[in-house]
Known about the structure:
Layout: E1 2-4, E2 7-9, E3 60-65, E4 70-77, E5 96-99, E6 109-115, E7 118-119, E8 122-123, E9 137-142, E10 147-159, H1 165-169, E11 175-187, E12 191-205
Parallel strand pairs: 4-5, 6-11
Antiparallel strand pairs: 1-2, 3-4, 3-9, 5-6, 7-8, 9-10, 10-12, 11-12
Amino acid sequence: MRRIGDTAIAAVTVIALGSGVWLLDGPTGTHAPPQPPAAEGRPDPGAERLSAPALPPSPPIRIRIPSIRVDAPLTGLGLTRSGSLDVPPAGNKNLAGWYEAGTTPGEKGTAIVAGHVDNTDGPAVFYDLGALRRGAAVELDRRDGSVALFTVDAVEVYQARDFPDDKVYGAARRPELRVITCGGGYSKTTGYQGNVVVFAHLTGSR
């Protein structure tokens, strides 16, 4: 279990963020979502120097990632009975969620956003998340009218058995963000094999 705020989250919590069913209707690999190259996993040595001061807590209402054409509303996510992070309704392909019992994006700590890579009809909100690159911008509109501006430090993909819950969900000394979806290849019998995780930190606001 990994504690975010005052709530413990079970490891490997968002493995069900995609059905992959629609992949079976086409040639193998033709429609597979992009996966990050290994080089993107290396941390940016200058990232710590570029951190912006933390913002007051305020719930996020929208996420934008211009480089991969994401512009989506956010819904609050809780925990399932097993203690894992719940997921947004799969029927709305342009909806993402944030863990509302934890850190709000922009305040000190680790904020969590999750969304589907696909649903039964095809690509969903975070289908292209694996194509994101270090230095890309992630913007979170907040309920107080401010916008928290994050910069991507790394994009990694993990198999389910190797998911590093400490690294992904662990406490941070500065405002950080994790954006998570399914990835790591797809199997007809077991579904997606892992998760794509974007690591970002606050670099500004407006």
